[in-house]
What does this fold into?
Amino acid sequence: MNTEFNRNWTTDNNGFALMDNEVERYISVVPSENQMRLAEKPFYCFIHFGMNTATAREWGKGNETVDNFTISAVDAEQWASVIKKSGATGIILTCKHHDGFCLWHTEYTDFCVKNTAFGKDIVKLVSDACRKYGLDFGVYLSPWDMHDKRYGTQAYNDYFCNQLEELLTNYGEVFEVWFDGAKGADAVDFEYDWQRYYKIIRTLQPKANIAICGNDIRWVGNEGGKTRKSEYSVVPYSLCDAEKTMKKSQQGENQAASLKEFSSKDEDLGSRQVLEKSDRLCWYPAEVDVSIRRGWFYSKNENITVKSAKKLFSIYLSSVGNNCTLLLNVPPTNKGVIHKKDAKVLEKLGNMISGITEKPISEYHPGMLSDDCGYLEYFFDSVKKLRYIVIEEDISFSQRVEAFDVYVKRADGEYKFLSSHTVIGAKKILQLDTKCGGVCIVIRQSRSNPVIKSIGFYE
Ligand code: FUL
It folds into this structure.
């Protein structure tokens, strides 16, 4: 073993304590069962479909009527089959967006699909299609409602709860409930009864994760598919504040573009320097929501904005491969199908994702590293073209690794430094282009002993 690897976390740990009361406090924060399940299925799709699909808008105006919903076909099975091919494992449907139009047969407003010429319950069509194709089904229900007259009064909270109850009772298992923080800048000031909403979800769908304005899944903070260098899952509890999330969300129909950028203000959410200032911590992993097109809803003018499979794959690597989940929006057309251009790109993406682990060189399950060995060293049976390394921490032991280096064994037997990285978390995917006969991963900094669930090398 080359001696330079002996200076690893066991002796140095970048000058940080390997274990003390503070470290103990950080690693005592672990995911719930629901969050564990989410980490195992980190890629799923958004479907933005509804009144805005018919009117080719992003937000609508709130004065639409059921007659404006001119959609006459919905091929939910095509949606499910296209999404299945992308490698995604679930669909979250905009059951009601900010325009207030409901895609299901609700008893609590007339402004719903039941009263349109189309007539069929779209939530039922989509949830049934999901089950047929083995996809999870999730619900987006916009708290902000431009149409409903009760908005701004306590009666609206009752209305919202009744709608949640319908959605969480009549359509089978729901894996995620997505509460959007967006609200028009000129909307009336109104307090949502978040605690009551959460209670209904926990009671009716105990396996559902609550996202964005909820405590299970953190919004990454932009809509452009960007992530931080280090995405921490253990963060200060103050980040779970729904009202704060709302302030950072979209506040105007045409403001979406500005949200595609990242504010570097909150680049570091979970280093030790941040955590030590916070009395209460929580497990709050990031979700990256991004659209395959420029907008969230379909518009014919935006057919040219469909992202390439290569671009989507790079978003996949920097989200799923960087300790986040990915929620990729695919908006069906006003003909009720996913456009062939999007479908083609999604199939390619699916092949690229399955291509990551298609040709394994070797895979291991090291578990907890011992006190006197802070590196993982593996030799291949010959020199291989190494394209990916996939590393997963066992997050039931929290998120521990804070920094690591990658060295590759050259054909002449010498090690060569390749790259330095920070956190691992649920999954880290490294894309490489090198030939080597082995790899050494040196953990430079960790919160107590790292616990590595798996490490795989792929050609
Ligand atoms: C935003 C909304 O305003 C957009 O219309 C879209 O639904 C996006 C996912 O969230 O905040």
